[in-house]
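Tokens for chain A. Residues wanted.
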């Protein structure tokens, strides 16, 4: 996120989304073309900017895993406020596409990768309307899905009291599984798990610290800086524990949900049978 700390022209404050069809929260705004801006959650005067650590770390991790998430950054507005900024492609989401029409989505087979991402960052709020599409698969070619709204990663916007000491227990738990990720076998997860396991402790530390430092560099109070740095410490610890725990945890989940380790071996073809007989005849 170092690029976000550069001196750049602030974005307009944006217009609050008032479209009657819009189902999101009042914290969302329309900004420049193809941008959605999100204000921080508030509890009285306190802003939970920690939520943006969740969003930005998830975005960065997704890039390492190859899971599609729109370009996301924290930007300063012309009115001085900070907002999370995400690229927006269309208002079509997976929830409103019938199951029989979803095969038209070009990257539908990559949904198991989203399962790995959601479990890795302990996303507590994965819903089908948080999986957006780049267009309408009924009328447009090569439509892709992409995932949004990761403020509820890492036990939620304020961390729900999560501390470094509590990380070990959370690493052993599954995040809520609220959608069908199209997983048939544990082997569907293995390519994504291999990418995950390539994330070293050093890479995780650098990724999270870059996110935290990038937000701090945009200008925050000392109190917010301390909170962000603590959040970063917890997130780094949790990612390392979950990286190590997930292969066995997800294999157990697959078996408990009737998903075998791998597809069954195909029955031998007639040509294989004839070849076998030929070999036996020569022995």
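Reply:
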């Amino acid at each position: 996120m170092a690029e976000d700390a550069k001196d750049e022209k602030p974005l307009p404050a944006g217009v609050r989304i008032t479209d009657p069809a819009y189902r999101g929260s009042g914290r969302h705004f329309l900004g420049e073309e193809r941008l959605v801006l999100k204000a921080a959650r508030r509890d009285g005067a306190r802003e939970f900017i920690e939520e943006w650590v969740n969003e930005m770390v998830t975005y960065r991790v997704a890039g390492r895993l190859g899971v599609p998430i729109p370009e996301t950054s924290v930007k300063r507005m012309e009115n001085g406020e900070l907002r999370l900024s995400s690229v927006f492609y269309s208002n079509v989401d997976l929830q409103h596409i019938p199951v029989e029409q979803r095969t038209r989505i070009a990257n539908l087979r990559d949904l198991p990768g989203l399962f790995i991402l959601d479990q890795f960052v302990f996303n507590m709020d994965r819903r089908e309307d948080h999986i957006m599409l780049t267009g309408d698969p009924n009328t447009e070619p090569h439509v892709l899905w992409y995932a949004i709204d990761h403020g509820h990663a890492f036990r939620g916007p304020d961390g729900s009291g999560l501390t470094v000491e509590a990380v070990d227990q959370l690493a052993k738990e599954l995040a809520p599984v609220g959608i069908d990720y199209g997983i048939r076998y544990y082997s569907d997860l293995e390519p994504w798990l291999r990418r995950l396991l390539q994330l070293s402790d050093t890479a995780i530390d650098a990724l999270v610290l870059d996110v935290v430092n990038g937000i701090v560099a945009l200008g925050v109070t000392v109190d917010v800086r301390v909170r962000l740095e603590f959040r970063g410490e917890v997130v780094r610890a949790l990612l390392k524990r979950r990286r190590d725990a997930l292969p066995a945890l997800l294999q157990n989940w697959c078996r408990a949900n009737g998903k075998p380790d791998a597809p069954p071996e195909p029955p031998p073809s007639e040509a294989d049978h004839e070849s076998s007989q030929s070999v036996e005849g020569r022995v």
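DSSP finds seven helices and nine strands in the chain. The chain has one domain: 2-258.
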